[in-house]
Amino acid sequence: MKNLFCFLVVFPFAVFAAAPSPLPTVGTVERLDPAFDALIAADAKLEKLAEGFKWSEGPVWYDGAVVFSDVPQNIAYRWKEGMTSAEVFLKPSGLLNPTPGFREQGSNGLALDLQGKLLLCQHGERQVARYENGKFTPLATRFDGKRFNSPNDLALRRNGDIYFTDPSYGLEKGNDSPLKELPFNGVFRLTPDGKVTLLTKSINFPNGIAFSPDEKVLYVAVSDGKAPRIMAYDVTADGGIAGERVFFDALALKTAGGKGSCDGLKIDRAGNLWATGPGGVLVISPSGKHLGTLATGVPTANCGWGDDGSTLYITANNMLLRVKTKTKGAGW
Predict the structure, then answer these.
(1) Are the C-beta atoms of residues 103 and 170 closer than 8 Å to each other?
(2) How far apart, in whole angstroms, are the C-alpha atoms of residue 176 and residue 256?
(3) Structural domain count of the chain
(4) Pair type for strands 302-306 and 142-143
(5) Residue 170 belongs to what domain range?
(6) Sequence-ordered list of residues with C-beta below 8 angstroms from that of 186, at least 6 positions apart, any chain
(7) pLDDT tens digit sequence for 103-161
(8) Is residue 94 part of a domain?
(9) In this structure, are residues 165 and 148 in contact, taking their beta carbons and an 8 Å threshold?
(10) What is the dihedral of CA 167, 170, 171, 174, to 10 degrees?
């Protein structure tokens, strides 16, 4: 009987991980000037990261993730790479105790202080606050003994000064709210020692706020439905502002059917403005030239830099979006 030999042949094999599904995209990238090509790649897309919010606002890069507000829902959310949806980060985020009289109760604009701690404009508490160790610390609550309306957005200087806007959007009936104590809607400066100074009360609807990279110019968005625009001011040696002027008039975009108004804005390292306005995120040169638009298709509230400083996160109506850019935010 012949010996039978069995041969086991082992074929090498590889294990391949499934490629992640591409994120859905929305809107379009509209190019108006050749200079825009140096800021946004030809194949750039607006990626949708999360949705289902009532009005998303104020994105900021914090502790390896983007944190943003849902103002009417009184919640701040957190999203980072790999998440399929945003998670609740702060609830409540603005109004800490039930109080009647507020149209939008939650946090709005967010930023980081010089130590990397989270700063919030809290509509419901009518204050600028710092969040750390699970607690909110009020930083600015009043001017001349009167409560603020509903602080909306804020920007920091390298010396620690906080500049912020205070429209009445958080209050039911807005400027006609019985809760309104200040007879105007102002732009203010808060110094590290706690002193609050009124910079201007000439704008009825002050909203987003940001500095040029050299901090010599302060930009303030005006969300006036009849006259949407971005104002510019020279920053004086004592921290005040002067030389009020219209930097960009967005009325033509509004008249042409662009959804939304001038709201939040951020600056890149070259001084270009990435400003929400009628149509989406308007990219505007330091000289005021409209270079292009990240057309989201919906009213768009705000934006902020994240990751390595080259990703722009966008809060657009009920969504959180992002787009990869070829520049970086000022300060990155």
Answers:
(1) yes
(2) 30
(3) 1
(4) unpaired
(5) 25-324
(6) 143, 165, 166, 198, 199, 200, 201, 206
(7) 999 999 999 999 999 999 999 999 999 999 999 999 999 999 999 999 999 999 999 99
(8) yes
(9) no
(10) 40
